[in-house]
Amino acid sequence: MLKHPKDVPGLISSDEGRWLSDIARGEIALEIGAFRGRSTAFIASTATFLVSCDSFQGQRQLRDDQAPVDFYEIEADYWHALESLGLASKVAVIKARSNDVYKSLAGPLHARLGLAFIDGGHYWDDLRFDIQYINLVRKGGVIAFHDYHGTRFPDIKKAVDAVCKPLSDALLPLACPGTIAAFRKERSIPDVSELPPE
Ligand SMILES: C[S@@+](CC[C@H](N)C(=O)[O-])C[C@H]1O[C@@H](n2cnc3c(N)ncnc32)[C@H](O)[C@@H]1O
What we know:
This protein is α/β, with parallel strands linked by helices. It has one domain (5-185): Vaccinia Virus protein VP39 (Rossmann fold, 3-Layer(aba) Sandwich). It is built from six helices and seven strands; from the N terminus they run H-E-H-E-H-E-H-E-H-E-H-E-E. Strands 3-2-1-4-5-7-6 form a seven-stranded mixed beta sheet, with helices on both faces. Strand 4 (113-118), helix 5 and strand 5 (137-145) form a beta-alpha-beta unit. The chain is globular and about 45 Å long.
């Protein structure tokens, strides 16, 4: 029985989840990468509305320490979590690859999000597009990247640093738990474009 976001199985820690809940409170939020709905539940528990995007197709490639999973089961668990926790009415679920829907989401959401949480594809060919979701964050809002810290997924740090370091006068790094790196948009920035292929 799921009673609380921390009961939802998934790949973020409870500390990371609580941090996301705090940042999302009262905000319009977006996440890329939902899996069984753990980050979804933490964010939607406090956000006014959450756009949750997942292809439900997994990563482009599996590392040796990752076992294959059945994404029919993952998606069923995701819906079960949203329904059990009474969150479905404030989550818009986008079942698609994030780069395929960027343009259609950027229309209505440009500079409106209080939180964008990026935890989808962990390889360059996804991240080079996902970095553009920073354009949807409002002034004062936060963009957060899971698995930035650590050695498992070096493309995350590479893409984030390529875009965020040159904008350090506008993007304030935040203290975050776990593997999250996050930045508050202190000032408006010019729109960021997709990064080149590797
Ligand atoms: C690391 S898991 C997300 C974990 C989740 N945030 C949690 O709290 O447990 C990554 C998810 O991103 C999805 N994904 C991978 N690449 C994607 C892409 N380009 N667009 C959308 N979803 C993607 C996968 O299907 C998978 O469910």
